[in-house]
What we know:
Blueprint: H1 3-9, E1 11-18, H2 24-35, H3 51-63, E2 72-77, E3 80-86, H4 95-102, E4 106-112, H5 119-131, E5 135-140, H6 149-160, E6 163-166, E7 168-171, E8 179-182, E9 187-190, E10 205-207, H7 213-216, H8 219-235, H9 241-245, E11 249-254, H10 263-273, E12 280-282, E13 285-287, E14 295-302, E15 312-320, E16 322-324, E17 328-331, E18 336-339, E19 356-358, E20 362-367, E21 376-378, E22 391-392, E23 396-402, H11 408-421, E24 425-429, E25 437-441, H12 445-458, E26 462-467, E27 471-475, E28 493-497, E29 502-506, H13 509-518, E30 524-525, E31 527-528
Parallel strand pairs: 1-3, 1-4, 4-5, 5-11, 6-11
Antiparallel strand pairs: 2-3, 7-8, 8-9, 9-10, 12-13, 14-15, 14-21, 15-20, 16-19, 17-18, 17-21, 22-31, 23-25, 23-26, 24-25, 24-28, 27-29, 27-30, 28-29
Helix pairs in contact: 4-5, 11-12
Amino acid sequence: MADYTREIEKRRTFAIISHPDAGKTTLTEKFLLYGGAINLAGSVKGKATSRHAVSDWMEIEKERGISVTSSVLQFNYGGYCINILDTPGHQDFSEDTYRTLMAADSAVMVIDGSKGVEAQTRKLFKVCVMRHIPIFTFINKMDRDANDTFDLLDEIEKELGIATCPINWPIGSGKNFRGVYDRDTRKVLVFSDTQKGTKEGIEEEIPVDDPHLLDVVSLEQKETLEEEIELLDGAAAEFDQEKVSKGELSPVFFGSALTNFGVETFLKHFLAMTSSPLPRTADCGVVDPMTEEFSAFVFKIQANMNKNHRDRIAFMRICSGRFDAGMEVYHVQGDKKMRLLQPQQMMADDRHVVDEAYAGDIIGVFDPGIFSIGDTICMPSRKFAYEGIPTFAPEHFARVAQLDTMKRKQFVKGINQIAQEGAIQIFQEAKGGMEEIIVGVVGVLQFDVLKYRLENEYNVEIRLDMLPYEYIRWIGNRDQVDVDKIIGTSDMKKVMDLKGRPLLLFVNSWSVGMTLDRNEGLVLEEFSKN
Ligand code: GDP
């Protein structure tokens, strides 16, 4: 095997999805404990990248009131080279969060055992399903009182529509949490919360039939466990690697990230079950990640870090081959040969030049404003374009009014540029020109970002008038539909995106359903393939 294929083979690139507070950050931190090295996206092979660098980067964003970082953490563990893509949650939930999932080969879904499936998980999950990537479930906070285990699994299956296969099974929860039973080895991994935050600490395993098990679990708990296992063996889906790989079956694990319990066993199983970099579809067919030729696509553009220079950072996911800093590449959409690494890329002392990287890795490159989301970079000798990244449905809408009409040009330029970076989406009334602009965002914070950036970078003041719409749908079969004839509800609005595609805005999901009922054959989509 060639060296580069060995490097690609050992890559595991995944995103962690969850609802805020389920424990994503804590779980990620515990993962890092097992690996050690921390690298930030854009410095994939950093020499001395430290935590310091990570926080500096975020500090700049904080100062500017913009927090759109989705960082990538790289570390080695058990012979694997792991790239964790952080999906921004909380307030800074945005379209970037969705797009990050386009760069991952699998997803880890963290669920709070006392809360079950929550809104944000549901949204992100949909994107994973669309991509048919493997989805692994970690049910967290078992050291707190959790919902009934069967109910939790039921909820995942019903709410998310994916079959589940518990790899281990919890014994009690909260004060009565005693550990997890591994269905394969038939051993109980005994819970202890003495390992808080450290890797050290003994992990005790007791075979389920060993009388010593009763030293840690009560007789009642043991009997319950036996009953549950019997039920499980009869009712639950069997582990099936093929189904896992297609995203049809989610292996489920239980643990407590905070106390570092069940994390390593999860990591080990997960790494073995998930795949090395997946092939991706391009206009020339499916591209094998193991081919020698480098190729990548842009999935995120980081806004100007420095107000005085309109520079940006384009984050790309390497999809095939090996990247070498000095190599000449081809930017398909720009129809240009270029070198990705330029001296400007070292924006701060503590960011590092990438010497080499492989399929599965994420690199950040200096972008003088030439890249767009979804662009392909490949070798000049083998030109092709990857499938575009879909546009995801915004959930918040506002009408933008420009306060100083004399600055029309700056306004149009600024708003278009920000839209090109993918932070906002712009719509126009179906009838009418650029006078009436509607902005749609996935996370409300992006409105503040828009206002701030237009003022600071383009010197344009705007007013945002919130609109009541929450749902937007693209028309899937627009060749067969006369948009003017669509009969909607009275609160529905017809708009157009920048590409002139018609869209419908709705205030609630009921109106979406009603419009579908009233227009036979109409197909409405939540994502738009570009
Ligand atoms: P995120 O928003 O999903 O990144 O969640 P965090 O990792 O920040 O965790 C949210 C809160 O839950 C924090 O206060 C954590 O300390 C706490 N937490 C995370 N994991 C556990 C766990 O396993 N048990 C308990 N009891 N608390 C946890």
